[in-house]
Amino acid sequence: MTDDTLLETPLDRAHATMESDLSDDAARLGFYERLADGELYLLLKSEVSGESLDADIFELQPDEDLPPDRYALVFDREDRLAAFAEGPAPYAALPGRVIAAMLAGQAIGLGVNLGVAPSSILIPPAAVDWLAATLGPEPEEVEGQLTALDEPSGLSDRLLQGFATKLGPAAGLCSKALLARGRYDDGSSGLILAFIDAASTAQAPLARAAQEAITFSGFAERLDVAFFDATDPVTDRLSRVGLSLDMTPPETPEPEAPKAPGSDPSKPPILR
């Protein structure tokens, strides 16, 4: 193992947090979230041909009376894959969520950073299936009539950070996002996350991002996602009682026009 492969990565930190207390559900969820969101290098048998990937599946025989366990190998850095393979090797760089979906239902686990990093771990097939199922299903549509809206309460820092992380890449898909507590005509209640002025094509990815924020934060309450126009009367009520989540797209700085040498008094010309 080289010094370069030992440089700590976000996945290493998430793994260390999980290993420090295996009874901590939030820490385990944090590790799986990092695994799903990060780019991973999947070791292949051969170079990519067309759209097909031929993952290099390794077998482990923990019990001679049972079929061997099968694992695909992934690494969170290219140099870690090369260190494991002891040289250049074919790979595909994919988000962890895509790899989990590819392997789901095939009784194939994940060997993560095996032997080349502190986050070396074997993830069994059942856990890969769970991750794919958690990330895969579309949010269900439900019908219910809101009867009251209140200020949100009982929000953990982890949940708020989860919203910030998951909704950050979606900034610009709506004008604002408002989080409140809602009550319905059937007597149920829960959090409601309302996206304002979201285009119809943006609604599915926004709902999925909100769902993942709830899942990986370990928040056990119900969350409903709703979409309203800024002119909708409920939007005014939401604005008064709800917590506003930042959905402002980052500004792209305009490139500076080139300046003639010597025109900036703070940067005198270089004399040769």
Distance between the termini: 46 Å
Radius of gyration: 24 Å
Averaged pLDDT: 83
Helix content: 25-40%
Q: How would you sum up this structure, described in words?
A:
By secondary structure, the chain is α+β, with helices and mostly antiparallel strands. The chain folds into two domains: 4-135, no CATH class; 146-245, 2-Layer Sandwich (GMP Synthetase, Chain A, domain 3). It has eight helices and eleven strands. The protein has helices at residues 10-20, 25-37, 78-85, 96-103, 125-135, 157-167, 200-217, 233-241, and strands at 39-43, 57-60, 69-75, 91-95, 108-112, 121-123, 146-150, 176-184, 189-196, 223-228, 243-245. The strands form two sheets. Strands 1, 2, 3, 4, 5 and 6 form a six-stranded mixed β-sheet that branches. Strands 7, 8, 9, 10 and 11 form a five-stranded mixed β-sheet that branches. It is elongated and about 65 Å long. Residues 261-272 have low confidence and may be disordered.
Summarize the structure.
The chain is built from 8 helices and 11 strands. With 272 residues, it is α+β, with helices and mostly antiparallel strands. The strands form 2 sheets. Strands 1, 2, 3, 4, 5 and 6 form a 6-stranded mixed β-sheet that branches.
Per-chain topology:
Layout: H1 10-20, H2 25-37, E1 39-43, E2 57-60, E3 69-75, H3 78-85, E4 91-95, H4 96-103, E5 108-112, E6 121-123, H5 125-135, E7 146-150, H6 157-167, E8 176-184, E9 189-196, H7 200-217, E10 223-228, H8 233-241, E11 243-245
Parallel strand pairs: 3-5, 9-10
Antiparallel strand pairs: 1-3, 1-4, 2-3, 5-6, 7-8, 8-9, 8-11
